[in-house]
Amino acid sequence: MRELSIAGVQEGAHHSARCGAQRTSPGKRCIVPVCWCFTAQVAGTGRMGVLLRRAIRAAGRPPVWLGMALVFDAAIAVVAVSSRRSIELSGLLGVAPLLICARYGGRMTSLAVCYALALCAVVTMVTNTSGTETSWRFGIAAAAGTLAVLVAVIRARRERALISISEKVQRAILRPLPAELGGISFACHYQSATTGAMVGGDLYDVTMTQFGPRFIIGDVKGKGLDAVGRCASVLAVFRDLAFAEADLARLAEQMDARLSEDMETEDFVTVILAEFGPGEARIVNCGHPPPVRVTSGAPGLDVLAPENYVPPLGLQPHPVRKDITLKPGDRLLFYTDGLVETRNRAGRFLDLDQHVATALAAPDLNAAIRSTVRLLLDHVGTGLADDVLLVLCQPIDCV
To answer: Staple partner for 331: which of 116, 191, 263, 394, CB 3.0–4.6 Å?
Structure first.
């Protein structure tokens, strides 16, 4: 989820429920929608701002980082050959392995060391230097390379250990959705924007209660591993209260009261609570992107936006339950803002259009989810900037 202020959240009550209805004009500061029910104040710099943010993200990707390090070493070698200070400059050839060890393991860093030593040899032959000068040049590159390989190996081992621990913790926090529960079939896809993390700021769960299957989907402020603890708190409260409160709207208010005790001033959680019954679904939306219904035999998608804006948990919501009819063959897609707020290279969001409707209408629920994810990844063209969660459900007797 984007880092929104409370003022930005409250301002969303006065704007369109559809994301992307307004656009920021270059060089101006304005209020623009960032999800279905929120707005945020953005210092708009137009297309240049989008390109700058994209360039910064691209520079941090391992292949780009590797290329920049190798080009940097090559540039040092060229300058060393063309200047009279070849000894001092060529000593910087050990910089590339030191840069590469921050993104790659020992094997790739070792290759970078060989690359640096090869450049040292080229500089030596072209400048026709020998003796102490050559030993000094190779010694600096070799020492820096050895340190880089050591750092890369230690970092890779620690990362593997941390990932293994985090996977176990994350599996305990986000339990896999059952394929079937209480007459409802589920399919799910969760992809964290944080490398090495299975989950981030998005959450979900489903449990069977005396009131029927109850489902939650949400998005906490922030993303990545920093948001995992907040997700755990929300899920723990849901699992504790879902069996006790019969009214779904009252359940949301009780969750807000419990969670607000430990929330900071700027913290909030967008959630949807859903309860399934024969031929219908009862939904309470607290500031979350609205679900969409795929109606059997009808084109397009039905966006089930609430009639009135309701703030997220943490901001004292008073939601109203919305009852949704589920006819034979109908499906409901719940999702987080990573689906509709991810920009492509042209700066455009993914539209929930006929292409998405066609993907969601696949005969199998899991195939429908996979097709939707492919549409999203094809739209983005690069790595995801936000966590993405998709949950597709359908009555079992209609599958």
So the answer is: 394
CA distance linking residue 342 with residue 337, whole number of Å:
8
Query: In whole angstroms, what is the distance from residue 394 CA to residue 364 CA?
Result: 10
Radius of gyration from C-alpha coordinates of the chain = 26
> Are 101 and 152 in contact, with CB atoms under 8 Å apart?
yes
Domain locations in the chain as residue ranges: 62-169, 174-398
CATH class of 174-398: alpha beta
Q: Which of 16-30, 55-69, 78-92, 368-382 bottoms out in mean pLDDT, i.e. has the lowest? A: 16-30
Tokens describing residue 222: 């922030």
Residues 6 or more apart whose Cβ sits within 8 Å of residue 29: 41, 42, 43, 44
How far apart (Å, rounded) are the C-alpha atoms in residues 355 and 342? 16
Residue that is written with structure tokens 């209660």 in the block: 209
Please enumerate in sequence order all residues whose Cβ is within 8 A of that of 380, keeping only pairs 6 or more positions apart, or say none: 342, 343, 344
Q: Per the confidence metrics, is the pTM higher than 0.85?
A: no
Of all helices (H) and strands (E), which one includes residue 43?
Answer: strand 39-43
Identify any residues that bridge with 389 across adjacent strands, giving them in sequence order.
Answer: 190
Category of 160 on φ-ψ map: left (φ > 0), alpha (ψ -120 to 50) or beta: alpha
Residue 192's nearest CA partner among 219, 223, 221, 216 is: 223
Burial of 64 (0-12, 13-18, 19+ CB in 10 A): middle
In this predicted model, what pLDDT tens digit does every residue of 183-212 receive, in sequence order? 899 999 988 766 555 666 788 999 999 999
Each residue's pLDDT tens digit, 146-181: 999 999 999 989 888 877 776 777 777 778 889 999
